[in-house]
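Internal QA ticket QA-208
Title: Verify multi-chain structure generation after dependency bump
Assignee: T.L.

Test input:
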Amino acid sequence: MDFWFGERKMAFDYDVVVVGAGPAGLEAAIYLAKEKVNVLVLDRKQEIGCPKRCAEGLSLSWFKRLKIKPNPDWAVNVIKGAALYAPNGKGINFKDKEVNGYILERKMFEKHLAIEAVKLGAKILLKQQVVAAKRVNGGVELDVEVNDEIKKVTAKIVLACDGVDSLTAKMLGLNTKLDLKETDSGYQYEMTGISGYDEELLHIYFGTDVAPRGYVWIFPKRGGTANVGIGIGAYEAETAKFYLDRWIAAQPGLRNGSIIEVNAGAIPVGGFLTKMEADNLLVAGDAGHMVDPIHGGGIGIALEGGLIAAEVAAKAIKANDFSDKFLSQYTKKWYAERGTHLMRRLKGRHLLEQLTNDDFNYLVGSINMDEALKIGNGTLTAKDKALLFTKKLITRPGLLKIMMKYLAE
Amino acid sequence: MVVKNNPNKCLYCGACVGVCPVQAIVLKDTRIIVDEKKCTSCGACVKMCPVGAMALQKN
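Actual output:
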């Protein structure tokens, strides 16, 4: 597609180049292709959706919000609730009659998205390493290493969805660096031949010895297979692998299971980038730190981030305006629709990080699941708070102080 | 001192790339490449790595 820039007629290879074929990039490509925008998706890997850096849980609310139908090809298990466990082994749980989430098979899910994007007119290329990016003639020129050659690709807008290891946005002057203090170190096994837990619940284990400043999870697939993982503060003395191996060794239902996949990754739990765009550039997914600050989940958030970025990119292409000013609609829309709401949950994580083993034991023994969810979401009513403070936390002044500070902020 | 990647431990997850303050680390498919000229040996990647595959060593 051609357009006039000053006196010269400029031609770009693509309207939009998406870097990164994960949920954010592929959801964006689907929307852009639907809007007849000329879009190319580049991924540095040899395979889409693999290796995952993910526990693969996606709640039903995201399916509804994004109008996605769960497909048994990639939505491999139904989830009806969750169980939270204190260090002393006691737990609280809730289980709905209805399905309220799914465990995905990411390598199938992303391939499904990729096939849909291509059917609608997008193009995808793999083993493409973006090694440099600069602004040229009102657009962007990418140097892409393919085999041993550098290939030039030009576009009006670049959509950086290249994960926690994103360098594309940095090459174009937007700093997406992760703050070590606000990033969790994640490690996971997909295990099979394991038992002793309800396969329709997500299982979350707290404790400063179990997972300092984080938690251990079991996200079940069907028939004795599950993602068993951990996220901990990045500045702990031991690695995430150390803590997970130690925990699994103490679980009778898990320790004799077999590992069929090993996963790792940084989890950007510190809240979203405050500015997610620049001239000719939009950032979505993990590259924009789009992860729930409490539980570290990011599939749904990345899908929605990619979608909103694509909506703004399509508008920009139609308006022929790729300036930071025009594209800033994206950051505004993101915060208005999701960001501000989710950022409230950052306080919830800071609260969790302060709790001791005794606090966890006490809380799990005294509060119910409804209260736990409301604390996490920051939706306790005045009546809830009064009950919590006067009846349940009154005997634990240290915990009461932490909670009051959290709830007053 | 400079940071070195141990490919025998590495799961090429890219966590080290994200926390590097000077963009000295690149993840290329299944390889972590450290630009030793750029590395300031701050150790952020060493702390971040989930499997202990990054270590500060004498150059």
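Spot checks passed. The longest helix of chain A spans residues 324-354.
Status: verified.
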